[in-house]
Every structure is written in structure tokens, then in C-alpha cells.
Amino acid sequence: MKRPNDTTNSRRAISKMTDLAVAAAAGRQVDIAVTRFGSDERFAELSADLVKRIPNVHENHLVEASAIIGAHVGPGALGITVSPVGG
Known about the structure:
This protein is an alpha+beta fold.
């Protein structure tokens, strides 16, 4: 059995994360944040993709995770936060 390479797994994970964020927005006005730890060229691309797929983005933030978070998740980690505007 051939094991998928890390690039394939990473792309699938980012795609799934993006789909979940779009579903969480559910057409509402939301703020989004893309968080990373370490150098990652996908950071800005992921943020731009979210803005395209979520029509009601109020604010879009690009955030660097703290060293404490980085110690647990490791370099290259990405995360997405979706927060409804106005409760």
C-alpha cells in the first residue's frame, strides 16, 4: 500500500478546515482569523480563499500563534477562527 505524502495530507487537511469554516459562517456576518506558527506560505493563500468563499466577512485577521501554542502544535501549524459579528 502506498502512503500518501505529507503534501497531499496537508492539502486535504487545509481543504477540510476551510470547508468547516465556511459551514460555520453559515451566511452570517463574521470575523475570521487565520493563525499560523512558523513560516508557512499557505497562510495568506488560506486567508484569501476564506474571504472568497465567505461572502459576509466583516474583519479578516492574520495572526502569529504564541510560542506556547507553537510548543504544542509545532512549526507549520495553521488554524482558522470564525466568530459571528454582533452576538
